[in-house]
Amino acid sequence: MSRVGPLRRPPRLAPGARVAVVAPSGPVPEDRLSAGLDVLRGWGLDPVVGPHVLDRDAEFGYLAGSDADRAADLQSAWCDPAVDAVLCARGGYGVQRMVDTLDWEAMRAAGPKVLVGFSDITALHEAFAVRLGLVTLHGPMAAGLDFVKSTRAQDHLRATLFAPETVRTLHSDGTALAPGKARGVTLGGCLSLLAADLGTPDARPSARGGLLCLEDVGEETYRLDRYLTQLLRAGWLDGVAGLVLGSWAQCEPYHGVRALLADRLGRLGVPVAEQFGFGHCDDALTVPFGVPAELDADAGTLTLDEPALE
Fold first, then answer.
1. If you average pLDDT over residues 276-280, what whole number do you get?
2. Which residues pair with 293 in a beta bridge?
3. Residue range 121-126: average pLDDT?
4. Cα distances (angstroms) measured from residue 22 to each of 52, 134, 163, 224
5. How does pLDDT run across 217-243, given as a tens digit for each residue?
6. In 3-state terms, what secondary structure has residue 116?
7. Rounded Cα–Cα distance for residues 308 and 36 (Å)
8. Which residues are catalytic?
9. pTM above 0.85, yes or no
10. Cα separation of 115 and 202, whole Å?
11. Starting at the edge strand that comes first in sequence, how are the strands of the sheet with 85-88 ordered?
């Protein structure tokens, strides 16, 4: 894929590993953060919390503190040699406001480590691929209700972090929107964020050659249509190898969303498989981004060529 060569896999975690929890997007409920930290401690990890995780911006209450403070928490955690992984506390909105202020040279010099998050963190998945050349994990967040209440989500993330060879195949609960097999490198995230990221310096210019994973939440069908059509018109989907679809929670009834996905994506002439159980849904699975894989839309499987982490 243009501007993104083979991505480097960070080291897996081991008991005793220090993980930093940061809030690059929206404000974090303290009770849910506490519950998430308890889960991480139960795995034998040593979680540390960024100094601004519980902040709320005085003027824009949808942000977890100022842009400068959110960026500083992320960069400080990433550049701390004692930190083995950075877990986002929640999504919401805010990454795009601060991502341009990160010191990518310093973060690159810090070496590879694990980044986990989804939703608004889609912008960081793109930036870490383009700027740092790293595999990242599209997975549940430390203070997310979908994480603290879901044993399945916890177990799958834990396995991905500690024993990634045990979770190399993801299985769909649905059928093929377009049949066939395809090979490529996984990428993607939240559809609306990918559309919003078009043309920015931290986003790849196209999904060419990739297995594009898409999901979203709370969007009316015409808005999903607009995002997909924007990606199509911009040529961002030209040459994509296949599509892996996750959840469309709190969108309109799925039969309508499914018809739209078939209409917009079926024209690409590549395999499209649905309902892979990642994204804004109960019991969400963790999907590594940046790993070569095979999609078998008919069998409903996505199989990684190698474990997500070394």
1. 97
2. 184, 304
3. 98
4. 8, 19, 24, 29
5. 999 999 999 999 999 999 999 999 999
6. strand
7. 23
8. 119, 215, 280
9. yes
10. 16
11. 46-49, 18-22, 85-88, 114-117, 136-138, 287-289
Q: Which residues of 173-210 are buried (b: 16+ CB within 10 A; e: fewer)?
A: eeebbbeeebebbbbbbbbbbbbbbeeeebbbebbbbb
Give Cα separations from 4 to 99, 115, 213, 241, 295 (angstroms): 18, 18, 17, 16, 20
Instruction: Flag whether pLDDT at 279 surpasses 90.
Output: yes
Q: Mean pLDDT over residues 46-71, rounded?
A: 98
Tokens representing 111 are 């070496």
Q: 161: which 2 tokens? A: 């972090």
The 3-state DSSP class for residue 92 equals coil
Spacing of C-alpha 69 from chain mean position: 22
Residue 109: how many other CB atoms lie within 10 Å: 9
Candidates 247, 253, 263; CA nearest to 174 is: 247
Query: For residue 248, what are the β-bridge partners?
Result: 216
